[in-house]
Amino acid sequence: MTLFYLKLLVTPLLMWAISLASRRWGGLLGGLLSGLPITSALVMTFLCLEQGTAFALGAVPGALGGLAAVQATYTFYLFATRKLGIAAAVSLAILFYGLAAYAFTHWGGLYLSVGVALLLIGVLIRASGREPRPDTLARPRHRYWEIPLRMVSATALLMLTTSLASWLGPATSGMLAPIPVIAWPLVVFAHVQGGRAGMAAMVRGNAIGAVGVIAFYLAMAGLLEHTGVAITMLVAMATAVGLTVALAALLKGRA
């Protein structure tokens, strides 16, 4: 029961904090924060505590396949919105995610998923860099229901994924862990409010953060059996954050 209330408390608070940071400091930072393995770390932690470490380790290949599918979906959305409206692009992107996640999880492997994810991250960083820059002086209109809706959606997905884990099995549970439940609403809302420039900044930040997500899962796979859940998650998160910050600083310097 304690874990149940912890899920209800931590997830919406994280979504609220990231949403406020995005409003205050812009889409790139919002994308970076939402791209970090926050939802993934929560899902994997609860899988460890509720299903055991062996189950969580079995979910890692599926999680990396899901991450590759996430990057494929953002790539699809970035290019599709050049021709399609937002509603049509979102609908097709969600369908595309389901197909891509199934393909990577069932027919790919860990190394293929990592390789494809890194390739797509490079494509996203390059393509988003060619989009118009956001107008830092513009003040997009924010609606009162946006952040509560994001908080509810993030919490609902976490609860659903962890509650059905024993029935779904480790592969499918892992595939669902990196679903961009925090990042995806931010990307769509940024597109609606700030146009392509705001959306591209959010996607760019998320792609940079995805490098840290890969590091998180690889560190988790290497440490979990030997160091326990708490230390593994702390080290994996620290690795992800450090790598993300370093990459963001490197790309900013080159820009």
Automatic annotation (TrEMBL):
The chain crosses the membrane at residues 54-77, 84-104, 110-128, 149-169, 175-193, 205-224, 230-251. The keyword Transmembrane helix applies. Keywords: Membrane, Transmembrane, Transmembrane helix. This is Permeases of the major facilitator superfamily. It comes from Pseudomonas soli.
